[in-house]
User: What shape does this take?
Amino acid sequence: MTTFKSKSEISTQTNKDSFERPDGRKIDEIRPMKAKVGIIPNADGSAMFSFGDTIAIAAVYGPRKMHPQHSQDPEKGTLRCNYNMLSFSVTDRIRPGPSRRSTEISKITEWALEPILMIDKFNSMVIDVHIHIIQANASTRCAGINAAALALAHAGIPMRDMVSSVSIGKLDKQLVVDVNKDEEDWEEGEGATDIPITLTSNGEITHIQLDGKITSKELKDAIELAKKATKQIYELQKKTLKEMKE
Amino acid sequence: MSDESSRKIVIPGEIIERGNDFLPGEGTEKRGEDIIALKYGLAEESNNLVKVIPLSGVYLPRRGNVVIGKVENITFNGWVVDIGCADGAFISLMEVPRFVNKNELDEVMDIGDMVVAKIIGVNKRGVDLTLKIRGLGKIDEGLIFKINPNKVPRVIGKEGSMIKLIKDETGCDITVGQNGLMWIQGDSIDKELKAKEAVMFITERSFIKGLTEELKKWFEGNKK
Amino acid sequence: METPRLTGERIRQYLEQGKRFDGRDLNEFRDLKIETGISKNAEGSVRVILGKTEVLVGIKMGVTAPYPDSPDKGNLMVTSELLPLSSERFESGPPKFPAIELGRVIDRFIRESKFIELEKLCIKEGEKVWEIFIDIYSINSDGNLMDAAGIGAIVALKHAKMPKYDEKEEKIIRGEWTDKKIPLKKEIPISVTVHKIGNSFIVDPIQEEEDISETRVTVGGHDETIHSLQKGDHKSLKIEEFHKMLDLAEETRASILDKIGKYLK
Assistant: This one.
């Protein structure tokens, strides 16, 4: 297991109006992260990734022949993602099986990963990525994408870069990095705005979503925060892959 | 050949070398003056050619590889073989060292049979296999199991030293498929299981230096 | 790849000499590792690693109306999913028969053993009872998911804490737990699956052994008492063979109980 304590780039003195996050973190501090590759022996690639209490595991199978045959793309390879939360990962049990939310997040995850994959030569083949959330405390799709990126690398899939994902929040007017459940439910002032975002190590955006209320300027600031945060996540992903002993 | 300690693990997107002298080999690409890794693995540089050797992931078929596979289907002119990679592999009845009548394909090799073959071509259609070399053919007897194909070089060892050690110590015949399938034949079950254990010993310690010594010690300690 | 026929033959030959592919005895289980509390939002949760097979089992509780034929008893529901994550052999989509069978066999195992004292889970007779969900997920499949799941369910139930319940509002306060455990019987039931291969009987098969297993019997019980039993797969059994399998199951129950004892405190 590779662990990572996030570095805040802002000293305590400059915390705007001494904004207090529910768990005491600095505004640009990510929860302690953990990552590991090779956790599922049967898979071609696998990994786990956690932000604090949010734990995601991912497994990659492929490239392999795609079934049913009519779904095959004869011109290039296909990426197929499946995201799901275990029934007991949240306090209110989720009935096992897909939901509209999990189907949407599966697609979002595909879009977040596809730009970096080099699978043009894998005609008629498929790469299956399975992501499951073991324990949820918000930012689950981001943890899932980080685990998936590690698993894809571990599976030896040709990729032009890694991607790293984090959620930026706006609590009333304050931007924060790595939103947890308490912050997701923020009610004061303008409430909570949740912005999950995925960036390549070169700073390209492969995924961004937004829920809430925000100005363009604030959103641009949020993206700057995301760039710094994803750099730290990238460092952990790199360290995890380099330290793998199997 | 570069010394093992000068190889480093790289991740996709990472810069391996900088400078116009270097050429991008397998698993890399050139961006400006930089050689960038496109895969997770060990970066190796030799004569300015930089390539990445994968540490994990599915088997990538290569011409000249000896592989072990299972017959999945019989067509009118050959056998479709599963060698554990995404491409289908095929043995044409022209690639068998004897004349085969179109009606007796299943008598030569039937669905479910295991076979040792050599890859003679990798193309858009798939992988072409041959049985026309000595030592290739249907497997009649023995123990077959699978290991991570990326560990095969370790199991074989430098100039075959590891595999020779196992053969000498157990008296077993061992055929190593580059696709990760292993075929062991010995004159007793104990010897076959010992050979298998030795192979697993190597795959579980593939990162260690001096593995040959460790394996020798293991055999010594396990002499009955 | 499905286990090659040749390997299957070899395994059978080894078994005739009393040897297994991985050096174990015929009645021996692989290394067992158990971690509890692996998912904080669950009432109880367990990771079971048996050799390379890994399952996660979680317990969730709710409050609901009782079944009409048991107005004073809590409800139990066991589900199981064979995740495609855990093996190239499992496909995405609604549960196929193996997943359904696993869920139902474990359900009967827990239910018939009366391990959970369902009568103590009544809040208001005929109106409100506790319901217990046992959800089983495969994480890596290398044979014997069934027994790994059985062990996981028992340990998870033992460790589960009941959620806080607001009697006035008549609902659960999610995210808060009491120190109270689920009411369970003292006797710990164990589920063991015995497989017949040729003339040999084994427990805890690896994937290759499971692939060539001719028939299997899953027995749930405690000490000499059997609460649930199911024969699966396609071949028939002579009565003496069935006796041998029952004996092996009983002997294995004891050794598993021994192994997991420390997780049941």
Q: What stands out?
A: Residues 11-15 of chain A have pLDDT under 50 and may be disordered. Chain A has one domain: 2-242.
